[in-house]
Amino acid sequence: MEYLSYHDQLTDLYNRSFLETEIERLDVERQLPISMIMIDLNGLKIVNDTYGHETGDKLLQKTADVLRDIFRDEDIIARWGGDEFVILLNQTSEVVAIKLANRIKNINEVVKLSENETIPLSLAVGYAVKKGTSTEVSTLFQRAENMMYKNKLMEKKSNKSHIIETLMVTLREKSSETEAHAERMGKVAVQLGKKIGLPKSELHRLSLLTRLHDLGKVGIEKGILSKPTKLSKEEWEEIEKHPSIGYRICSEVEEFAHVAQEILAHHEHWDGSGYPRGLKGEDIPYLARIISIIDAYDVMTHDRPYSKAVSKEEALAEIKRCAGSQFDPNLVEKFLEEDIV
User: Fold this and answer.
1) I need a surface site. Which of 69, 198, 203, 260 has the fewest CB within 10 A?
2) Cα–Cα distance between 285 and 154 in angstroms, integer?
3) Residue 337 CA, distance from chain mean position
4) 301 and 208, same structural domain?
5) What stretches of the chain adopt beta strand conformation (E)?
């Protein structure tokens, strides 16, 4: 019971309560200089939203393992809460603290999710040092935290973008969502966008949407994505989660957040029979209506695990047949013009 009261059950590191107790004990002159390093696990929410909290827990446990390898047995390593960790180092100079902080920032570790899936471990770091008795240990928290968040903000864009790129690679390896599929969609999307007079900024959004629209499928089991036979009701329910997963992922990344609503809506139907929200007509975001036509056409004209490709003429006939039910009829009219596909 005593052990459990001072340790975090997930990572087996010390917990916040123990760290606070140790700070009081070590805050004496003979322990100076006292250094504190604060760490934040980047991208945990994206991982939780994509793969579930069990996978997020693996990232936290891997972080704990990395910290145990870096620090001494006598150093106090604690999970401060959520995705934050704090290390308290007595008789440790600022020079040493800087070296340790840089070593943490530059780690090159991945977490294995399955035989073919990994995700990078990325940590934001801050530190502070108490050199004299006039400094309160409590101020170390604020100084280390301020530095950590500054580090996190400076690298936020690149870290999260790197996670997204990793997820895209994983998706291409586990499903038929290939780079070629995205490139083909991108070319057609730009042609249709120009035909209907989209401004340059919207063309850029549309192009990005062709890359990211099915990102949420990374959270669906490979066996379902590559199943060559008819999906069961339960498997379809899993597939129908992918717009919501993609929405949550991209909402977390500043440079992709402006297409998150369109990702969420790209399987909505003009007549309200689509998913996940059953939006109807012009309530469906405009770019999502465009992407749904282009995606359907490309899927029909190229082989998939569950279907053989049909001819261009057959695909266009199907698009025309679904105008007013699945697709925006005005956009279908533009799409069927000869110079689009």
Assistant:
1) 69
2) 32
3) 38
4) yes
5) 34-41, 76-81, 84-89, 110-112, 118-120, 123-130
Residue for token pair 């669906």? 220
Q: What is the model's pTM?
A: 0.73
Statement to judge: residues 86 and 191 lie in one domain: no
Residue 134: pLDDT above 80?
no
Could you read off the pLDDT of 301-329 as tens digits, one per residue? Answer: 988 777 788 999 999 999 999 999 999 99
- The count of domains in the chain is 2
Question: For residue 329, is the peptide bond before it cis, meaning its omega torsion is within 30 degrees of 0?
Answer: no
Max Cα–Cα distance, the chain, nearest Å = 83
Which residues, in sequence order, are CB contacts of 252 under 8 Å at separation 6+?
45, 46, 49, 160
For every residue of 129-167, DSSP letters joined together read EE-STTS-THHHHHHHHHHHHHHHHHHHHHHHHHHHHHH
Active site residue 222: no
Would you call 246 helix, strand, or coil by DSSP? Answer: helix
Cis amide linkage into residue 285, ω under 30° from 0: no
Question: 12-58, pLDDT tens digit by residue?
Answer: 999 999 998 888 887 778 888 989 999 999 888 888 888 889 989 99
215 DSSP assignment: G
Whether 71 has a pLDDT exceeding 90, the answer reads: yes
Q: Which of 130, 160, 174, 217 is catalytic?
A: 217
Whether residue 85 sits in one domain with residue 209: no
Distance CA(130)–CA(138), nearest Å, equals: 10
- Quote the domain boundaries for residue 43: 2-155
